[in-house]
Amino acid sequence: MIAEEVARQEREAxxxxxxxxxxxxxxxxxxxxxxxxxxxxxxxxxxxxxxEPDKTEDVKPAVKQPEPKxxxxxxxxxxxxxxxxxxxxxxxxxxxxxxTASIVGSFGQRKHSEWxxxxxxxxxxxxxxxxxxxxAVFEGEVSxxxxxxxxxxxxxxxxxxxxxxxxxxxxxxxxxxxKLKSGQSLGRIYTDPDTGVATMHFQLWQKTTKLNxxxxxxx
Length: 219
Hints:
The protein has one domain: Glucose Permease (Domain IIA), CATH 2.70.70.10. 22% of the residues lie in helices and 32% in strands. It has one helix and twelve strands. The strands form two sheets. Strands 1, 4, 5, 6, 7, 8, 9, 10, 11 and 12 form a ten-stranded antiparallel sheet that branches.
């Protein structure tokens, strides 16, 4: 009887060990997939920044979103006290989204405590209100409109030697070649249908050099 009980316990322990090993393997695969997605998003945006955008790529139809809580489609009437020289506006550029917003993802290396991995971000993530307008932080020209997995519709705006990148747009208001005013709306922010959270991705480049956008924004 004792031998049978010991054997049973050993079988159960082995089953638990195999189950735990399978769970660790599954989590490792999830982490690897997430890291690959982050790397692919970074690689895609970096490639685009290293070449002069020349045309608008095909943009996939937007996923249906909840009714926006913010009604205004543009922010053209808002006044921005900005210098004509882009670089002189460091620390004074408006947030690239209307309404209440906060930076929830930093530039550079990010340590994900849940996954225990480190990834690298070319920009910052900004959480805002559902239906908020993503807007140009400075006057310029739309260089490219395209799609990146994980960022939905994206827009690059050229300001002389500087470029700004706006990701996670679902309702596009502009096209390649459009001349923009400071604060002009590019589209509405995408809201995750599962969480109800609206987050955009924002990058700043000087030619092909990545810059941390956070110190450039007025908050």
